[in-house]
Structure formats: C-alpha cells, structure tokens
Automatic annotation (TrEMBL):
Keywords: Kinase, Membrane, Transferase, Transmembrane, Transmembrane helix. It comes from the Eukaryota. PROSITE patterns: CYTH. Residues 1-119 form the CYTH domain. The chain crosses the membrane at residues 183-204. GO terms for molecular function: kinase activity; pyrophosphatase activity. The gene is udkC_15. This is Uridine-cytidine kinase C. InterPro entries: CYTH-like_dom_sf (IPR033469), CYTH_domain (IPR023577).
C-alpha cells in the first residue's frame, strides 16, 4: 500500500480535519498545495464504516514562530528522539536563507513524517503493517472512540428509519470522497502545469541572458 492510498486525518483539541497533500518535490523544497477540510467525528466514523482502516497514528506537538514572510515550525514527534524543523514561505530564496541562518544546510529532507518513522523501524517491519502492529492497542482505542462517538450520530441504529438515515449519510459521504478525489487529481494536474510553466519561463530567460 502506498502513502497515496491513505487519507490523512488530523485530530487537534477535539477537532477533526481531512488533509489533502499532493507535494511536488523540487530539490530540497516541497511545493505543496495545502487544503484542509474541517469534518465531524461522524464523517470519520463513516470512513471506517466504508472500509477504511486506521494504520498509523503519529502524535506530535509543535512550536510555531512566524513573521510576515516565513513560518518556522518545530515539530516534536513522539516516536522520534529529535525534533524536526519546517520552514514555510511563499518565496524560495527567503526560505533557503532562513534555513542557512538556522545552520540547517545539508540536513534537509523532503520525506514525510510517515516515511521517516517507517525508516526508523527494523527492516522486517518497514511497512504500514509494522506501524499498525506496534500501535495495535492505541489504534484500537482510537477506532473504538470514533465509532462510539460517531455512532451516536446515527451510523448504527436498530430502527428502520435511522438505518435509512445512516444509508443516506453513507451515500453522501461516498459522494464527498469521490468529489475530493476528483478535486485532488485536478489540483495535481494544475500544479504540475504551473510548475512546468515557471521552469520553462526561467530557462527561457536564462537563454536570453
């Protein structure tokens, strides 16, 4: 199973968000259109009802520093002994200069936290099933909590009327997932075209000079 087959859900202060990430890597940089959707716990329960499985849970805390040009995020991952620093901005040169100021030259990575954690596992466990085995109890508790809270919204009910309501909710959820998948594909194509145009224009300017 590839990471692109996964749906990322963030839980922060009791709120859930669906994260759409399609990073385009360019050297030490990630050009990443960011789209987050706030969702209810019932929606997460609906995804589990549709057949999705919880395969990994990454617990992290972050300290964020920002000004008008860049955002510096210090992430502490529970599974990793050292923090990671993300520098975000709209200007590549400013981001690179900030990294140099923080003496981060030569220590960049464009890997996701999930990839980093997978690589830290023993060779025989370097798969999503390896993470799932290590986090079995934690994931089971998380799934049970989501199902118990989401179930109160009508996904599971003995009455015919509530079952009908749950069916319509599931159909609506399936439609939303399909719309998100189509939007994600279109968004990826648009960003690829944009980056190709920018690179082509840069090469054209260099040739003229």
């Amino acid at each position: 199973m590839a990471e692109s087959d996964c749906i990322r859900v963030r839980i922060c202060e009791g709120r859930f968000a669906l994260l759409i990430r399609e990073p385009i890597r360019e050297g030490n940089f990630i050009v990443q259109p960011k789209v987050d959707f706030d969702i209810s716990i019932s929606t997460v329960a609906g995804l589990l009802h549709l057949g999705y499985h919880a395969v990994a849970c990454i617990e992290a805390s972050a300290l964020i520093y920002q000004d008008g040009k860049i955002l510096v995020e210090v992430d502490h991952l529970e599974a990793m002994p050292i923090p990671y620093i993300q520098i975000k901005g709209t200007n590549k040169d400013i981001v690179a200069a900030s990294a140099s100021t923080l003496s981060l030259d030569g220590s960049f990575t464009t890997k996701t936290y999930l990839e980093i954690i997978l690589e830290s596992l023993p060779a025989l466990e370097r798969s999503y099933s390896g993470i799932q085995n290590q986090q079995a109890l934690q994931l089971r508790k998380l799934v049970e909590f989501i199902q118990s809270q989401g179930g109160s919204s009508g996904f599971e009910s003995p009455s015919t009327r509530e079952n009908s309501s749950a069916d319509s909710s599931i159909e609506e959820l399936q439609l939303r997932v399909k719309i998100l998948e189509r939007w994600q594909a279109v968004n990826m194509v648009l960003w690829t075209i944009l980056m190709s145009t920018v690179i082509g224009y840069s090469l054209y300017k260099r040739k003229r000079h």
